[in-house]
Amino acid sequence: MSSLPTAPGFPPLRLRRYAGFWLTDRTLKFLGASHARFSPRPTDVLLVSFPKTGTTWLKALAFSAHLPSTGADHPLHRNNPHDLVGFLELAGEDDDGLIYEGIPSPRLLAAHLPYSLLPHGITDGSGGRIVYVCRDPKDTLFSFWHFHEKTTATLQRMADDGGASSAMPTFEEAFELFCKGQSMAGPQWRHALEYWEASRLSPDQVLFLRYEDMLRDPEGSLRKMAVFMGCPFSPEEEETGVVRDIVELCSLGMLKGLEVNRSGRTMLGLKNEAFFRNGTVGDWSSCMTPAMAARLDGIVAEALEGSMLFFLKEKVDHVLPYAFKTGRSLSDQ
Questions:
Q1: What EC number(s) does the entry state (predicted)?
Q2: Mind telling me the catalytic residues?
């Protein structure tokens, strides 16, 4: 690790460049352990995302698809989604030395790791399936910014081995770092591109979703996820409105209002409330100038040229925030 190039990043933690990506010391220390002590199973489902691209929502939906009940005893009423679906990068070890070995199958896990850095047992096709969600980089940066306004002090206190950290940068400084790819697991566009290419080569192993498409049709997206994960909804569940109820339970308005998410802490000691803001699309325009947006779009377009990957298929409708907050699809309106 000491031989790797280092640079300040956003969030304001020291990052090291490895295999084309900027990673924290904590993540780098985990990589060797994950390849040696994580034993993938054919029934595993791994939820992957670049940070702040819909991770919390994806975890809630996927967990609920495995547990198609939305009553008052549902675990989401008592737990933050990050407590129910653990990250590979934050794994501990069981007595036998294997990571997450004590969880019964089918296991539902998560990661922010690039595809090329996942344990080989996952990427060789023998270790289950991957659900990946991407999001427009401009909104990703804006969400990152607000998230780390709330969490920087906590993250600085737990910086690994005295890892260099600094005060919260201005938005303009954070923008410059993000454009250089100097963010956790960045560059975002390369992160997404690896999963995009994997999904095209192995569509039965990697499901590639867009956050904006999920907002347009949350029920359709949930059904697609459930089929891919091997737990499709039964005709009886469809008839009784289970899909609709799950989408409502996992909507931002519902999760944000639960007592467990108004108080308490989750992974790394972060406050539960920090993971819920407003989930809107196009929110970047309140903080990013048109020139900044054009510059970032240009960087992304150049990096993705020829890949057929895009982040937004069409102009975002103003109804999208409503769809996320209520759990209703556009066809309901």
A1: 2.8.2.-
A2: 112
Read off the pTM: 0.86
For the domain with range 6-332, which CATH number is right: 3.40.50.300, 3.90.1700.10, 3.20.20.70, 3.40.640.10? 3.40.50.300
Compute CA distances 198 → 44, 191, 229, 273, 310, whole Å. 17, 11, 17, 34, 15
Q: What is the 3-state secondary structure (H, E, C) of the chain?
A: CCCCCEEECECCEEEEEECCEEECHHHHHHHHHHHHHCCCCCCCEEEEECCCCCHHHHHHHHHHHHCCCCCCCCHHHCCCHHHHCCEHHHCCCCCCCCCCCCCCCCCEEEECCCHHHCCHHHHCCCCCEEEEEECCHHHHHHHHHHHHHHHHHHHHHCCHHHCCECCCCCHHHHHHHHHCCCECCECHHHHHHHHHHHHHHCCCCEEEEEHHHHHHCHHHHHHHHHHHHCCCCCHHHHHCCHHHHHHHHCCHHHHHHCHHHHCCECHHHCEHHHHCCCCCCCHHHHCCCHHHHHHHHHHHHHHHCCCCCCCCCCCCCCCHHHHHHHCCCHHHC
